[in-house]
Design goal:
The complex is a heterodimer of chains A (92) and B (316). Chain A has 92 residues and is an alpha+beta fold. Chain A is built from two helices and five strands. A five-stranded mixed beta sheet of chain A has the order 2-1-5-3-4, covered by helices on one side. The longest helix of chain A has 11 residues. Chain B has 316 residues and is an alpha/beta fold. Chain B folds into two domains: 177 residues, Rossmann fold, CATH 3.40.50; 98 residues, 3-Layer(aba) Sandwich (Rossmann fold). Chain B contains ten helices and ten strands. Classes of the chains: A alpha+beta (92), B alpha/beta (316). Chains A and B meet through strand 3, strand 4 and strand 5 of A and helix 4, strand 8, helix 7 and strand 9 of B.
Chain lengths: 92, 316
């Protein structure tokens, strides 16, 4: 088991074109480090130099926005599903 | 009193109805705020009328003026209705992958539509509108993503209506687009009943919609203040369509697809409240009726067919 991470089209240059990749870690930060080791450059697209999520990147663990669950400190575990998406304007 | 001087005056005071079949237990209840009961059939009437009246009051908008707005549909329809009656010209910048009904309604109300590329989604509609506004200094862009009058309509209208109808409210769930509904209602509830949890449901579109989006060119509405939310969920088209169908099948409420996404988040919270053994009164927003989305195929065929038909469309 591992954590499945869905990668948006714009970041697939880092994952060899793969839509989903797998990684490990107890927190989102650890997961991102693990992913960056396998897919160099990915972390730089997601996390700022100050160690925060980029303003226009949204990350969801099991569909919940991590900015409300501890951001990069959000706990993750095997079997979780992580989705990365660019922030978009919405309507309704 | 259900008599009004004009259609615009009938705005708001929409019904709040219980969901006896979809509520999980008698102690954890779901309530739908039927915003399709507004003048043009969507919650956006509140923001549109509020923004126009604020601009009139400030002297920014006079009869004969041209209003410009980036919109995926509902706000444009609301603005078009008011604009026609008050003698404004309306230009809507709209992504080309929005439903045909929305275009037809805009044209019927006399609005002019400028299409922005599907691949750029609403972000590009915003960018195109900002560019046009810069070129035409005499056009008035109300700009729903950053206009305080949008959130204000919910602070003075939607929020007070809900609390008056259901003082026992524990959770409020709405869609996250311009963020106006959530920001305005939350600000009101935080003042009057701060223990109410405020939850956003955000539509997750298909790959095509995000496809060419550069992460550095993302968009967060100026109105958005995350401190006014307690959690935020991303809901994909399959869950949105499934819940939209449940709502009509089990409760008789024929709603648009974004409402299905909101109901999905509301039901998730309901399950957690049941598991925790708490009482809960969960209010969620029905943004609009399903009429404008019939052509998307969301209401016919299997769930898989409906979901794949929505791929590439801005369904909320």
């Amino acid at each position: 088991m591992a954590i499945e991470v869905r990668i948006p089209t714009i970041l697939r240059t880092h994952t060899g074109g793969n839509k989903t990749v797998e990684g490990n870690g107890d927190t989102l930060a650890a997961l991102v480090d693990d992913l960056d080791a396998k897919h160099p450059g990915l972390k730089n697209r997601l996390v700022t130099e100050e160690g925060k999520l980029h303003r226009f990147v949204n990350v969801y663990v099991n569909d919940e926005d991590v900015r409300f669950t501890g951001a990069l400190d959000t706990q993750v575990k095997d079997g979780d599903s992580v989705t990365i998406l660019p922030a978009v304007a919405g309507g309704c | 009193m259900a008599r009004f001087a004009s259609l615009v005056d009938s705005l708001g005071n929409t019904p709040l109805v219980g969901l006896p079949n979809l509520s999980p237990t008698p102690d954890v209840r779901l309530w739908a705020k039927l915003e399709d009961h507004n003048p043009t059939g969507s919650i956006k009437d509140r923001a549109a009328i509020s923004m126009i009246e604020a601009a009139e009051k400030e002297g920014r908008l006079k009869s004969g003026d041209t209003i410009l707005e980036p919109t995926s549909g509902n706000t444009g329809i609301s603005l078009a209705m008011v604009a026609r009656q008050r003698g404004y010209r309306l230009i809507c910048v709209m992504p080309e992958n929005t439903s045909v009904e929305r275009r037809q309604l805009l044209e019927m109300y006399g609005a002019q539509i400028i299409s922005s590329p599907a691949a750029g989604g609403s972000n590009q509609a915003v960018a195109v509108a900002k560019g046009l506004a810069a070129e035409h200094a005499d056009w008035v862009m109300l700009y729903q993503y950053g206009n305080p009058a949008n959130a204000e309509a919910h602070y003075t209208g939607t929020g007070p209506e809900i609390l008056a109808d259901l003082p026992s409210i524990t959770h409020f769930v709405a869609g996250l687009g311009t963020t106006g509904t959530l920001m305005g209602v939350s600000r009101y509830l935080r003042e009057k009943k701060p223990e109410v949890r405020v939850i956003a449901a955000e539509p997750r579109y298909g790959e095509l919609v995000y496809g060419l989006r550069n992460i550095d060119e993302g968009f967060v509405p100026e109105l958005y203040d995350p401190a006014l939310l307690d959690s935020r969920f991303s809901v994909g088209p399959q869950d949105a369509v499934r819940r939209t169908r449940q709502l009509v099948e089990q409760e008789g409420i024929f709603a648009g697809i974004s409402t299905g996404a909101i109901l999905h988040a509301a039901l998730g919270i309901a399950d957690k409240e049941v598991a925790a053994g708490r009482k809960a009164d969960i209010v969620f927003i029905v943004c609009d009726g399903g009429w404008k989305y019939l052509s998307t195929g969301a209401y016919a065929g299997t769930l898989e067919e409906a979901t794949s038909a929505l791929e590439g469309q801005l369904w909320a």
